[in-house]
Specification:
The chain is an alpha/beta fold and 278 residues long. It folds into 2 domains: 25-193, SPOUT methyltransferase, trefoil knot domain (Alpha/beta knot), CATH 3.40.1280; 208-271, Trp Operon Repressor, Chain A (Orthogonal Bundle), CATH 1.10.1270. Helix content is 31%, strand content 15%. It has 9 helices and 9 strands. The chain starts with 24 loop residues before the first helix and ends in a 7-residue tail after the last helix.
């Protein structure tokens, strides 16, 4: 009688959470799935587009380390019929196609598995050119959540009924139209992930960037001290940190007034300043 070797007992891996997943291994890779890590779930017709640039540089290293996780959800398997149709012609006529409510609903329900019901703890977002503009405050809000679900639109958009039913937040990358939401999703995730603890390694750097305090960032310089007759401002070489901080603040305010009068108006109002002050 031949005895089969016993399977080794399961081991505890601390925060590592080993779970079965419907995602193909080529999308998931060999990255750790750490319980409690911030996660982005992306509903898309092109899951192979992820992680894309998110798999590079600081966000990629943080992804490899399990500081955040990515779950691309292919919309196609939720399609209807033999050909897995995900869209249909717009009611009332018109050009293009619209993503079906029943198809998107099924994908959203799959994405909601294991997530908190609160939209504060887990925002659900549709990337839409008619949405509220994405900004640094939105990135900070999302970074404080447990994760988020993003719906990448295609064609002429998504049936409004499913957006209303799931209380989906519509957010726009800018006043222009893309062929789909995948590029916008990567940009917004990048802006959010870099705010997560441990991703950048230097928390102070996020406090000095453009938009962190309502102003554009001051100019930056490095070696050589003189390049093609252009010298680094003397104050930056003075060693006087008080004067350096004052100079940087003045440059931030000047750049914001010149380039983004909309931001300057908001900043000035919050500071009790005259927005027309030079």
């Amino acid at each position: 009688m031949t005895l089969k070797p016993k399977s080794p007992p399961s081991k505890s891996h601390g925060r590592l959470s080993i779970r079965a997943s419907a995602q193909p291994r080529d999308l998931m890779g060999d990255r750790p799935d750490i319980k409690g890590a911030w996660k982005a779930k992306i509903i898309t017709l092109f899951p192979q587009a992820f992680p894309g640039v998110l798999g590079q540089s600081l966000t990629g290293r943080a992804l490899d380390q399990g500081l955040w996780a990515l779950d691309p959800i292919d919309l196609r398997p939720f399609g209807i019929g033999k050909h897995k149709n995900v869209d249909d012609t717009p009611a009332g006529g018109g050009a293009g196609m619209v993503l079906r409510a029943d198809v998107v609903d099924a994908a959203l329900r799959r994405a909601a598995e294991g997530t908190p019901p609160s939209r504060t703890d887990w925002p659900v977002v549709y990337l839409s050119p008619r949405g509220r503009p994405f900004d640094q405050a939105t990135a900070r809000r999302w970074a404080k959540a447990d994760g988020l679900t993003m719906l990448c639109g295609r064609f002429e958009g998504v049936d409004q009924r499913v957006l209303d039913h799931h209380r989906i937040e519509e957010v726009s990358l800018g006043d222009f139209v893309l062929t789909g939401g995948e590029i916008a999703a990567q940009a917004m995730i990048d802006a959010t992930v870099r705010l997560l603890p441990g991703v950048l390694g230097n928390e102070a750097s996020t406090e000095e960037e453009s938009h962190s305090n309502g102003l554009l960032e001051h100019p930056q310089y490095t070696r050589p001290a003189d390049w093609q007759g252009r010298a680094i401002p003397e104050v930056l070489l003075s060693g006087n940190h008080g004067k350096i901080e004052q100079w940087r603040r003045e440059m931030s305010e000047e750049l914001t007034r010149e380039r983004r009068p909309d931001l300057w108006k908001t900043f000035a109002k919050a500071q009790g300043l005259d927005s027309d002050t030079e």
